[in-house]
Design a protein that fits this description.
- The protein folds into two domains: 167 residues, Periplasmic binding protein-like II (D-Maltodextrin-Binding Protein, domain 2, 3-Layer(aba) Sandwich), CATH 3.40.190.10; 92 residues, D-Maltodextrin-Binding Protein, domain 2 (3-Layer(aba) Sandwich).
- The chain is built from eight helices and eleven strands.
- Helix 2 packs antiparallel against helix 8.
- The N and C termini lie far apart (46 Å).
């Protein structure tokens, strides 16, 4: 980042006000990251890239605007054309449909931060992901309201899952450990849209799905669409954590974004935005 950008961000920090949602940062120590050469000079502007075709696109734009307000920074957005996707974004999912090379070029040439990154050990070494703004569980949903736990489902029925999603390996192990005459069958699908379609047409008795995907697909009300949350999953499934990516040399900016996220989580802004965009059940639901 050039000196002009460094001065803009430093001034931004010194101007923060002591409201609940704004961050109190000391401007005394300036990280060397602020003085690294970048291809852009943006002053106190933060340019966010996002997945324009993803289910969280509107939520992430609103969240980026809130982060900008918390940091007293101007927010601008960059995205990619639909034709540039390697594959179409999977429906009701968090996966990024871009190659590592595409992401690298976007972050080198067009954006300071990239919304919607899964915290994963498989992320490239040149990329740093902030603390998560969204931590979401996998849930088990049934097509019959009488199915409250998996033991309520007759043996021989199919349990669905998106292939390689959190919980898929555990489901394979569960089914594989059961006797042939006392087991359920696994149904694996390319995406969550196919999974939900098979639940609704009766091909599946129950399925595992990322919770925000379920609520987004059903406009925040699964039961109105004939889908019923079960009480438990018969095995532990890791939560999916989503944060904001920066380049590793931009650790100072990454820390700023993480602090802003912490403030917006603490004051309920993130929860309110998730409810507004049907990514979680409403407080009254």
């Amino acid at each position: 980042m050039k000196v002009g950008a460094a001065i803009g961000l430093a001034a931004m920090l010194g101007a923060l006000v002591p409201a609940e949602r704004l961050l109190a940062q000391s401007p005394d120590i300036i990280s060397r990251d602020l003085y690294e050469e970048r291809l852009r000079q943006e002053g106190n502007r933060i340019v966010f890239c996002y997945n324009m075709a993803g289910m969280m696109a509107e939520f992430e734009q609103d969240l980026a605007r809130e982060i900008g307000q918390a940091l007293l920074a101007e927010v601008r957005f960059e995205t990619v054309k639909e034709g540039d996707f390697m594959v179409m974004p999977p429906p009701y999912d968090y996966r990024m449909p871009l190659s590592e090379d595409q992401i690298f070029l976007l972050m080198a040439e067009r954006c300071d931060a990239f919304m919607g990154f899964h915290l994963s050990e498989s992320n490239p070494e040149w990329l740093l992901v902030s603390r998560p703004y969204l931590v979401a569980e996998t849930v088990m949903v049934a097509s019959d309201p009488d199915y409250r736990v998996v033991e309520d489902i007759p043996f021989g029925e199919r349990l669905g899952v998106r292939m390689m999603a959190p919980g898929d390996t555990q489901l394979i192990n569960l089914v594989g450990a059961m006797p042939d005459d006392r087991r359920w069958r696994r149904g694996a699908f390319f995406n969550n849209e196919m999974l939900l379609d098979k639940l609704l047409d009766g091909s599946l008795a129950a399925g595992l799905i990322w919770e925000p995907g379920l609520y987004y697909a059903t406009d925040g009300d699964p039961e109105a669409h004939g889908l019923y949350l079960m009480d438990a999953i018969p095995f532990p499934v890791r939560a999916v954590e989503i944060g904001i990516a920066t380049r590793v040399q931009d650790t100072y900016l990454n820390n700023l974004l993480g602090d802003a996220i912490s403030a917006l989580v603490a004051d309920g802004t993130v929860t309110e935005l998730m409810e507004r965009h049907n990514l979680r059940p409403s407080a009254g639901g």
